[in-house]
Amino acid sequence: MSQTWVTPGGVHPPENKHQSLTQSIGVLPLPEKLVVPLNQHIGAPAIPCVEVGQKVLKGEVIAKAAGTVSIPMHAPSSGVVSAIEHRPIAHASGMLAPCIEITTDGEDRWIAHEGVDDYEHLAPRKLLEIIANAGISGMGGAGFPSAVKLNPGRQRPILTLIVNATECEPYITADDSAIRERAAEIVEGIKILSAILDHPDNIFIGIEDNKPEAIEALAPHVEGTGISVVSFPTKYPSGGEKQLIYILTGKEIPSGKLPADLGMVCINIGTTYAIKRAVVNGEPLISRVTTVTGDAVGVQRNYETLIGTPVSHLLAHSAFDEKACSRVIMGGPMMGFTLPSADVPIVKTTNCILAPSYAEIPDDEPAQPCIRCGMCAEACPVSLLPQQLFWYSQAQDHERLEAHNLFDCIECGACSYVCPSNIPLVQYYRASKSEIRKARAEKVKSDHARERFEFHKLRMEQAEREKEEKRTARREAALQASAAPSNPSSSVPSSSAADIIAAAQARAAAKQATPEQQQAQLERTIAAAEQRLIVAEQKLAEAIEKGSANQSVLSAAVENTRQKLEQAKAKLAELTA
Amino acid sequence: MIELIAQNPILAALIALVGLAIIFGALLGFAAEKFKVEGNPIVEQIDELLPQTQCGQCGFPGCRPYAESIANGDAINKCPPGGQATINAIASLLDVPAPELDEEHGQESPVRTVAYIREDECIGCTKCIQACPVDAILGAAKLMHTVIADECTGCDLCVEPCPVDCIDMLPVAETLTDWSWSIPKKPGQLIATDTRGELSHAHTQGGGA
Ligand code: SF4
Ligand code: SF4
Ligand code: SF4
Ligand code: SF4
C-alpha cells in the first residue's frame, strides 16, 4: 500500500453508516410526477427544448446545455411534459427555480440509445462529447460539469487521476453501497477516464478504512490495471478535494489554484459510474444512488433514485414518521441543509436524505458567546483560525476576513461541531463570503457606471462644442450679410467678406475628420441655407410689395444666400462623386 | 590628488557625502518624474468608494464632483445610494468619525431598483435619454424607448422628465445566484424556542445519537 499523509485538524463524529447498509440498493416505484430543475450544476441553467403537453421518452433531452459550462437535462422516465415553471427546489433559501415537470405514464420506455464498447479507440474529444451530452456533473460535491473538469487544456497534462471514494460524512453510504455492488462498472468508468486523460501515471482510488467491504469489492477488478486503491484512517473531512489530494500525494493545492494546475484531477466515484453508463451503455445521467436514513424513517437503505423524484416520495416508501422527525436534511449532518419542504426533487448531487429523530439530532442549542477556547482552530482541516473569522464576520471586516483566507474555508462544519458555545460558525462564513462576493460585483458595476458616466459627459461636451461652432459660423454669416449693404452697387459679396467665409469654412472643414462627417456637415449647411433662402426671398417680396427702401440690401442678402447654397451643393457633388 | 584625499579624512568624508547627496538627489528627482501621480489621489480614492449611481442627490452633478467637494472638506454623509456603508468607508479612509446619513438628501433604500419603461405607453420624446447619466436608455425620436437594465444605476433621474409617466423604478428581484446566508443573531441572545424551524441554519450540531 502506498504512503498516505495526514491532514491537520479534523473531527470524528459518530459514523452512523451501518443502518443504511443492511440492504442492497433498492428501486422505488415510479413516482407520478418527476420535477427536473434546470440548474442542478455549477454554470448556466439548461434551456428547455420541449413544450408542455409533449410526449417524451426516458432519456430524451428535455433541456439543452447553455454554453460550455452547463449540462443538458434528460427525461428520467417516459411520459408527458406537464409543466415548465418555477418550483421549489433543494436550496437552503427555499426559493423557486425553473423546472420541467413530467407526468409519468408508467411504461418507463427508453429512447433508442447505443453505447460504444471500444472506447479505447475513440478520440478523447469524442468521449468528452458523450459525457457532456449525457448531462454528467460531479455527483459528490457542488456539481461541476464533468466534461469541463476533464478537459483542462493542453498546457496542463494530467499526471494523477484521483477517484474520490472517501464519503467521509456521517450517515451517507451511497458511494459505499455502489462500490460494493458495481465495482466492475466503476473500474471500467475509471479506465474511460484514464483514456480521456491520456493515461495518467498514477490512478488512485482514495477510500477511508471504514469501508472494508468496498475495498474488498474493488480489489479483484483493479488487479493489473495500474489503479491503486489507497485506504487511510477515517477522519472528517477527508473527502474535500484538497484534503484528499494532500492525503494521497502530500501535495497542497495553493489557495486560489485548481488541482489541474498541479497536473491532477479529482473525480467522485459516483461520477465514474455515470460515465461508464454514458459511454458503454449510451445512457444519460437520469438516476443516482441516494441514501435514505435517520431514525425517523423505518426503512433505512440506499435507492437507485430517478432525478426529479420528490423527496416526499422517497420518504413515503421508507415508512417515514413525520412526528418523530426533527427536520429533513439533504446531504449529511455536517454539510447538508434543512429542506424547506419535502416536495423538492432529488437532483444530480443529492447523495443523502437524512430524516433524524429529535434524539438523534436535537434542535440547535442556543449559541453562547465565544470563550476563545481555540478548539475550532484545532479542528479546522485547512488550518484557518475560525474564531478570528467569526469575530471579523460579526464586524463585517472584509479586509481582515480575506487576509485570514476566508475563501479557503471549505465549509466543512468541523469548527461548529466542536465549538462548546454552539456558535453556528459556518453560517457566519457563508454569509460573509457572499457579502464579499456581492461587494466585489458591486465594485465592478460601479466602475462600469463611472466609465459610462465619464463617456456620457465627454459626449455631451462634444455636442455642446459642435453647437457652439455652428453658432459662431452663423454669427459670422450674419456679420457678412450686414456687411453687404455697405457695398450695394455690387451684387457679388465683397471679396473681403467672401474671404472670411471661405476661411471659416476651410477651418470648419479642417476640423472634420472623415468624408462622411464632411458630407453630413455639408448636407446640414445646404438644408440651413435653403431655409434661409426661402425666408430671405419672402422678405424681399414683402419689401418690393411695400416699396420699402432696403430692397437692394435684401436682394443682396438673397443673392448671397443663393451663392452659399450653390457653393455647398457643388462641394457636396464633389465629395459624393 | 588621491593621496591628498587619502591623507585628509575630513575631505574624504565630505566628498563621499556630497557624492551620495548628488546620487540620491538624482534618484529622487527621477522617481518623482517617473512615478508622477496624475490628478488628486484623495479625490480618486473617495470617488472609488462612492456608488457611482450619478443621481445627484448629494447636490452635485455626479459622484466625482462630490468626491472633490469632500476632499475640500464637505460633509461625507450626503450620498443616500451609498448609505451608511459608504459613509463608514469614507470615514475610515479620511480618519474622521462616521456620521449618520443626512436625511435632507434622501433615504437609503434597502433594495436596488432599476428603471423600467412601459413600452407601449412611451411616446418617443427622448427626454429620458437626455436625463440618463450613464446612457442606459435606448431609443430615438418618435420611437419606443427601453432601459438596458444591466447598465441602469437606478438613479431615478429619468422618471421626472417623462411627460407621460411611463417609467417605473422596479426593485431588482433576488435570484438563486445572489441569495445569501444571513449573519446569525449575536450569540447569547437566543432563547431556545427561537431556533426551532430556523431554515437558515444549515449545520446541525451533531450526528451524535
Ligand atoms: S468550516 Fe471552514 S473554518 Fe470551519 S473547520 Fe471547516 S474549513 Fe475550517
Ligand atoms: S470553538 Fe467556539 S468558543 Fe471556542 S474559540 Fe472557537 S468559536 Fe470560540
Ligand atoms: S448622491 Fe448620487 S451622485 Fe451623489 S455621490 Fe451618491 S450616488 Fe453619486
Ligand atoms: S435609466 Fe433612468 S434610473 Fe437608470 S440610470 Fe438611466 S436615468 Fe438613471
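Residues 132 and 143 of chain B are 17 Å apart (CA to CA).
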